[in-house]
């Protein structure tokens, strides 16, 4: 699934395994113009290397999927989220119409979803956080993203949303918990 934006570019959120397949197959025709790869440093996992040489715009980051600063892991930082937003802003006007921005982490559920949501919220503008969430659902492989809450807090701060982005993302966490049977509808 892809999500088209006003400037004609598209975003797709997926796992590292899917990204590896896509960079090899899709990019033979140049369908991917940009990629954000988020690696797992503590698990020794690296982003796919094959196919990346043909993608003109690349951002490679490395941090764990943790929800608070923990010395045993490499936590995402506000600087990481700032780089994600700045990378997308720099792409505007440079990505060819109909081409994709591919964003992936190991599973394609949390860190890559948070990166995509930060980008979507920035593109949609203030007051349109719910729309950003709906666009994120369309942009993910299974339509059930669970963006990393630490990254969402940073994005909320950087975009000056005064908690609106975190609140919108919070509805995804509640939905995820309902689907997993961890909370009741009344709770």
Description of the molecule:
By secondary structure, this protein is α/β, with parallel strands linked by helices. It has a single domain (3-179), classed as Protein-Tyrosine Phosphatase, Chain A, CATH 3.90.190. 40% of the residues lie in helices and 15% in strands. It has 6 helices and 5 strands; from the N terminus they run ββαββαβαααα. The chain has helices at 16-25, 78-91, 111-124, 129-139, 149-158, 164-179; strands at residues 3-4, 10-15, 32-39, 57-62, 100-105. The chain has a 5-stranded mixed beta sheet. Strand 1 and strand 2 form a beta hairpin. Helix 2 (78-91) crosses helix 3 (111-124), helix 2 (78-91) packs across helix 5 (149-158) and helix 3 (111-124) crosses helix 4 (129-139). The chain is globular, with a radius of gyration of 16 Å. The termini are far apart. 41% of the residues are buried.
């Amino acid at each position: 699934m892809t999500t088209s934006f006003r400037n004609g570019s598209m975003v797709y959120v997926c796992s590292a395994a899917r990204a590896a397949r896509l960079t090899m197959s899709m990019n033979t025709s140049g369908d991917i113009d940009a990629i954000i790869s988020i690696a797992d440093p503590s698990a020794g996992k690296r982003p796919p290397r094959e196919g990346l040489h043909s993608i003109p715009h690349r951002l490679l980051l490395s941090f764990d999927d943790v929800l608070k600063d923990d010395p045993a892991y490499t936590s995402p930082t506000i600087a990481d989220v700032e780089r994600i937003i700045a990378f997308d802003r720099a792409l505007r006007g440079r990505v060819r119409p109909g081409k994709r921005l591919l964003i992936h982490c190991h599973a394609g559920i949390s860190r890559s979803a948070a990166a995509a949501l930060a980008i979507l919220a920035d593109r949609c503008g203030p007051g349109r956080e719910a729309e950003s969430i709906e666009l994120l659902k369309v942009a993910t492989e299974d339509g059930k993203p669970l963006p990393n809450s630490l990254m969402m807090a940073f994005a909320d701060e950087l975009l000056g949303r005064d908690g609106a982005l975190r609140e919108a993302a919070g509805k995804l966490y509640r939905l995820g918990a309902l689907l997993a049977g961890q909370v009741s509808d009344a709770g």
